[in-house]
Amino acid sequence: MSVSVRSDAPARPPRRLSSQLFEFLGSMNFAIMLLVVVAIASVIGTVLKQNQPYQDYIIKFGPFWFDVFRKLGLYDVYDAPWFLCILGFLVLSTSVCLWRHVPGMLAEINHFRTTVQAKSLRAFHSHAEWALPEQTAAQVQQSVSELLGARGYRVRLKEHSDHRVLAGLKGGLNRCGYLFAHLAIVIICIGGLLDGNLPLKWREWRGEIRLETRDVPARDVPDSSRLQPSDNFSFRGNVRLPEGTTTNFLFLRLRDGFFIQELPFAIELKKFNVEFYPTGQPKSFESDVLIHDEDHLQQPLPATIRVNHPLVYRGYAIYQSDFGDGGSLLTMRAQPLLGQQGEAPQLQGRVGEKIPLKTPQGPLTLELDDFRLYNILPVPASEQNDPQAHGEAGRKVRNFGPNFTYRLRDATGQAEEYQNFMVPMRLDGRSFFLSGVRGSPAEEFSYLHIPADAKLSPDRFLRFVALLHDQPRLHALFTAAGESAPGLNAEELATVRERLVDLFLRQGIDAIVAQTRARVPADKAEEASRFFLELLRRSLGEVYIQVLREEGLKPEDGVADADETFFNDALNALSALGSYRAPFWLQLTNFEQLQASGLQITKAGGQNIVYLGFALLTLGVFVMFYTSHRRVWAWIAADGAGTQLILAGSGNRHQDAFAKEFDEIVRTAARRFGPPLAESAAPER
Amino acid sequence: MAVTREHMLDDLAAPGFWQRLTLRDWLWAALVVAGSLWAYASYSAYMDEYEVAILAGCALGLIAWGLQWPPARGLSLTVAGLSLFALWRYGNDLGAQERDFFLKYLLGSQEAFMWMSALFVLATLTYIAHSVSQSAFVGRVASALTWSASTIGITGLMVRWRESYLMGTDIGHIPVSNLYEVFILFAVVTALLYLYHERRTGTRKMGAFVLLVISAAIAFLLWYTFDREANRIMPLVPALQSYWMKIHVPANFIGYGSFALAAMLGCAWLLRDKAERAGWRAVAAALPPCALLDDVMYKAIALGFAAFTLATILGALWAAEAWGGYWSWDPKETWALIVWLNYAAWLHLRLTKGMRGAPMAWWSIIGLLVTAFAFLGVNMWLSGLHSYGTL
Ligand code: HEM
């Protein structure tokens, strides 16, 4: 319910197109349309993951749609011209609205509407009327103006020919609320645009700078892709800094490339610390840094940067964003799995390096990808009593120690990815060295379980493998057994056994069954397979006994349960070797960890503008909703010797709160004037 | 008339703010100040300056709340009493949970939440019975149940806060850190907002609708507890270890609670409207009049919008501190913006065009769906920096 006493509205002249357009831009309908369109456009950016490598999008959409979506800017919606354009219209619309309304509103704050008709006041929801035979109009006016003044209304009097009107007004702040809230939108958008990528794009479009899209080291990036500290008013970039190194530039990623942003100071990472809760969740990430800035600092400034606790230096804010390996030095032994002779070669390299290797299978490149000191993982069901495990029963976790990840790439560029743990992991009461392998990052690792011997080393297994590949010794061993079989003398049987072992090592049990099926008539195949498998098992057993004997044990006196279990585990590992693909197992023997801290460094020149907008917006919204602009009128006319008084009023918000206030005004007035003749109905429910 | 001029003015003036305060108001303020000072004296060693500021802000807020809405005092005092009692039973030993009768059956946070859930569901049924039977007594029972549920729910949150510290000082944190905890917050905030409007409007007929959405939240909570064991207290990941969480999350939930309330009243509006037009007397009589629903709906959305504006701004300030930018167009942020724009549009129509009726009621219902997606859907389907609380 609003006041409709705008008697001074001028007759509209015919409007021109430009003014119509202007009006449309500031209109409610356009504003609401924009609000809804921005909302819908924003959805796109949340559904389609933004700013991924272009390769990922090509795989996802195919080349045709990839290109269509790229042209629409869907991979970076919030920087797309059309999106910025809508935002621009939002600013425009709000500004036009302000432009059109503010002068009127400011005027209204001080505009006392002193020309009202008694009839229209009586039509107000909140009104009351008195006939006061004993008081003069001047007395009544005096009382009412004191009464309204005492309640915080500013009043103004206007004498008309046969009556006078006292107009009261309060709550001008409410109008300012509108001003604040809308001005805030404009301010926030402007600040936000300054902090966005727009200035960068502008310079790119002007040809002043060029996006670097090649995969080159920072020192090879040409000057055209480098931004000086003074160039950029606002940016947000990342850098990954290994411990003990220093940087004075960052990468600003944009679309499918990057710029290099130079800094006016250098940051040195002294040390990076991670802490974990016993449950395995990370507890804190911290970087101890030194800021080097000869022009501004006497000596380097030490600081610790944590998540939620950035360092602000000369207007640049430095944040902890992620972490990783900074090139740990790994020492490894390439343990042969295919019977290569001689001492297992020792390798050394840093994470991130590519090491060429010569193997009997041809040249391979070893790419060291990652090293992790802590691997806090769920404890297997059988090991819930492990004293090192933490957490609630049934969901325990523990630290399984260091592991590293590498890829072996062959000459054709095909690569397999591996992940090896340094110390053996306990499973069902036994210990295994785990080595995972997978063909692509999309797959899960499947793990080879290499059984550890009583000294928790892989040696026994490796000796077993070595002996199985050692043709002459194997032959000697099998011949010495002196066994024969129907139709085969000892020598021949020994050869059969060697072939069986060889086939098993190269292709697994299934190959033996398949070959038997292919060579023996169908009705005898079953029996023959059983015979060969039994023979294989016995042969492997004998080789294993030999391994035990060489360790100095006396298998003749009986084999311990643990050694028997080891044999079965070893057989499982051997049959999995066929799908392990690598000719060797890289055992991590030593490491020197070097961590890297991922820092994000920002300069947000528009931030204070935006924060000003935030403050205005909050203020504006609360003021707009929780104050109201209120008007009260007293219409006073001489009536014979006495006086006639009509009180009426309205508020632009919270009608019921206003009705309550008006009731109180009437009650106070009634103490001076007696009960009113007519009063508005009680507020309806 | 022989009144002095001063006296006459006294007579006319509205009593000022200070004059209107009664002894009880002063007592209330004194009690809150004393309580806060006690908290400060006991825990100041563990608080940084922001947390001291938050404590002071809370004290002022609590005083203002109690002055603005007197029932808040009884609620706060009961919650404080129960929480202190539970803290005393705990001492410094989390194991007391298993042994102490009160903790085991009533005040241990888990038990408190179970009581809260049961009471909210009962309250829902009772409000429905009230709407159907029109019995004032049943209505009073329903209100009492809702009050009790809210009280025990808030107490549970307080106790859980303490329990987290009993698990380890480095694990302790305010219980608004994951989906489980904020669902409880949501239920309680929505109930309190409802109770405020119930008292203000003098009708209990909105209860059946509002409590329905609370019951839905309870159903989710129970599933989440029993199926996913989400009720366990987990330590905070580094990104959440910030005092901002203490103000950002509660502000958000005043918004979410208000929007949920408004949407349920939208349902009631549509039903009443339909009943009036179709001449279903009994149905119409069970619902409050459309004009009242409309008014409460507007008030709820206005409050929700104001709180949500504040919450989003606080979120932006937090993001500036944790991630290095006040706005990253991360899915959660973007959806908060979408929710905000949606209700901004609603308010524009209502305030400038004076629009009411079915379209606004429908819009508030759709608004809740959008809000629910921003709250839950984003966590489930869209990944981003806000990684907490996946299902
Ligand atoms: C903080 C959020 C906002 C609030 C609370 C708000 C509130 C309001 C209110 C109360 C009015 C009417 C003023 C009156 O009654 O005289 C209004 C008008 C208007 N608002 Fe907003 N607004 C907000 C944001 C926006 C935004 C983002 C836009 C951008 C498109 C916008 C555009 C407009 C326009 C164009 C009008 C004038 C409509 C007319 O009278 O023709 N507002 N707004």
What does this structure look like?
The complex is a heterodimer of chains A (685) and B (391). By secondary structure, chain A is α+β, with helices and mostly antiparallel strands. Chain A folds into five domains: 21-106 and 179-194; 114-171 and 631-681, Double Stranded RNA Binding Domain, CATH 3.30.160; 198-232 and 234-326 and 596-604, no CATH class; 329-455 and 587-591, no CATH class; 462-585. In chain A, the strands form six sheets. In chain A, strands 14, 15, 18, 19, 20, 21 and 22 form a seven-stranded antiparallel sheet that branches. Chain A has a six-stranded antiparallel sheet with strand order 2-3-25-26-1-27. Mean pLDDT of chain A is 84; it is low at 1-10 and 681-685. With 391 residues, chain B is mainly α. Chain B has two domains: 68-236, no CATH class; 255-391, no CATH class. In chain B, helix 5 runs parallel beside helix 9 (136-167), helix 8 (109-133) runs antiparallel to helix 9 (136-167) and helix 10 packs across helix 12 (244-278). Protoporphyrin IX containing FE sits between chains A (26-28, 31, 34-35, 90, 93-94, 97, 178, 181-182, 185, 617, 621, 624) and B (344, 347-348, 351-352).
Radius of gyration of chain B: 22 Å
Give a count of the beta strands of chain A, DSSP E runs of length 2 or more: 27
Shape of chain B: globular
Specify the overall morphology of chain A. Answer: elongated
**Biggest interchain interface, per-side counts:** A-B, 62 and 59 residues
**Spans of chain A with pLDDT under 50 lasting ≥5 residues?**
1-10, 681-685
User: What level of helicity do the residues of chain A show?
Assistant: 25-40%
Query: Segments of chain B where pLDDT lies below 50 for 5+ residues?
Result: 1-8, 384-391
Structural class per helix/strand content of chain B? Answer: mainly alpha
Strand content of chain A: 25-35%
Number of strands of chain B: 0
Tell me the strand percentage band of chain B: under 5%
Protein structure class of chain A: alpha+beta
